[in-house]
Amino acid sequence: MSKTRMVTQFGMGTSIRSQNYTEAAARGIRDALWHNSLNVADAFGFPKEAMLIEVEVGVQQPDEVDSDALLGIFPYGQPSVRVVKGGLDVAKPDGSGVSVIANVAIIVSFDMVATGAENTASGQVAGDQA
């Protein structure tokens, strides 16, 4: 089996008032997911549970993100979350805090059997006669 990347999705989420890094990350994940309708599992005959979902979240305060809470967003598949320093904190003009911006990348992969270049679409080796 070989892990094969099928889809890369990007999103952005914010927490404008509450400075909640987890909520900004969750909104970024939803932004990435809900702008797409992926049928790759069905197209390749895999169950949706076989989707390997890697999530990378960038925020200015990575330690403030509850990664376990983000896993609950995914209705199926095998998600994993990695939080890194990134995103942006924008100071409020009155000095009362910041608005949080989270950037998100989601990579969907499957474990697939590699096929050689000699295989044709019908599964026969080029040059074989049926």
From TrEMBL:
GO molecular function terms listed in the Swiss-Prot or TrEMBL record: GTP binding
Keywords, comma-separated and alphabetical: GTP-binding, Nucleotide-binding
Protein name: Uncharacterized protein
High-level lineage: Bacteria, Pseudomonadati, Pseudomonadota, Gammaproteobacteria, Oceanospirillales
Pfam families (UniProt xref): Lin0512_fam
Top-level division of the source organism's lineage: Bacteria
Organism, scientific name: Cobetia crustatorum
